[in-house]
């Protein structure tokens, strides 16, 4: 559903875009002032966030449009340096919105922590002991972090994995104890790490083994998010390709990424273009999300596409993306980073689950857009069109020269830095540009 305030949004100036979002009721006066000032991270906060801090590193902060998710419209903030990501997400989401939007499923939000034990005298007996003492282990874990229990969360279940020795590589056996923890609205890394360290003495006594470490697992297989869409083929026609042809080619693109890891990595990188950008904008740990997503893509033993695209019985295109999304709606820099606070305001999400739904939908839209371009007109047309501005800046263009040079570059066969520099020289009436 395209509302008026979104019309030609990309053609507006940043101030006009902010005004458009204000008239749509998405931004209030304070948010507008913050956006216009530039969402600066105060030096004092930055200095207290990391060791040896010197300055801050900035990225463009923009919004992807047209996201209709579970019946609700969203304007999706993204922090990203790559020119085509927001354009691609918005274009993909626009077609999916015409088809009824995204449907999402968040089954549960349970995080996993691990204790690795070595030199356990009898792993099979130890496994039985651990499982029969599950209540005590949960109690020890919850006692280590009582505040999460008070809020209604806490450690819920214990499981055990016996990892046999690998004599060829000289790797000893490990007995790995997992705690499954409800961290509610938080991502919960600190909660879990505290709990894991809290249960170590008890586990050592119980098993006779020696703990190597206790730590959260970023492979959050108990925190999966799914986004799906169903698109009538008629909405897919592009250039010389009919809707049915585009649908079939999209399915083949998925099949290619399913069987070939070389393609799957690029396919999934495209998905993560959008996911990392919103995860970063939301103040969450994008390295954790990326690491978990790529591991999940390998769950069958081969690295495969994270999305799937199939044909429904009536000929519609069915898209689906499932991945671990252990993000938080509170905690970490979410509470104090100006951009993370702005993202919360713009999205208006009320829970971590809702944020998961948005993030998974962004990933699906991003993949849809990328593979649709790849199997029709190719990626370079759109990419280079958007890249022309960055290239103009790299060549040294300033002010109005940027738009002028970007337009000239779009007409060039070889759009590269050398061409940009020579065109800039022509614009300036000079022979060379330093
Ligand atoms: C570029 O950042 C992302 C793509 O390569 C993704 C893909 O190939 O699916 C276009």
The low-confidence parts are none
- Named at the architecture level, the CATH assignment of the largest domain is Alpha-Beta Complex
SS field, number of helical segments: 16
Largest sheet: 4 strands, antiparallel
CATH topology of the largest domain: 3-hydroxy-3-methylglutaryl-coenzyme A Reductase, Chain A, domain 2
**Could you give me the name of the CATH homologous superfamily of the largest domain?**
3-hydroxy-3-methylglutaryl-coenzyme A Reductase, Chain A, domain 2
The CATH top-level class label of the largest domain: Alpha Beta
Helix/strand structural class: alpha+beta
Mean pLDDT: 95
Q: Tell me the distance between the termini.
A: 48 Å
Report the bound ligands by name, code or SMILES: (R)-mevalonate
Strand content: 15-25%
**Overall 3D shape:** globular
Strand order of the largest sheet: 3-8-10-9
Give the strand tally. 10
What string gives the helices and strands in order? Answer: HHHEEHEEHHHEEHEEHHHEEHHHHH
Radius of gyration: 25 Å
Helical content band: 40-55%
Number of structural units classed as domains = 3
Quaternary organization: single chain
Pathway: Metabolic intermediate metabolism; (R)-mevalonate degradation; (S)-3-hydroxy-3-methylglutaryl-CoA from (R)-mevalonate: step 1/1
GO biological process, one term: coenzyme A metabolic process
Family: Belongs to the HMG-CoA reductase family.
InterPro entries: HMG_CoA_Rdtase, HMG_CoA_Rdtase_bac-typ, HMG_CoA_Rdtase_cat_sf, HMG_CoA_Rdtase_CS, HMG_CoA_Rdtase_NAD(P)-bd_sf, HMG_CoA_Rdtase_sub-bd_dom_sf
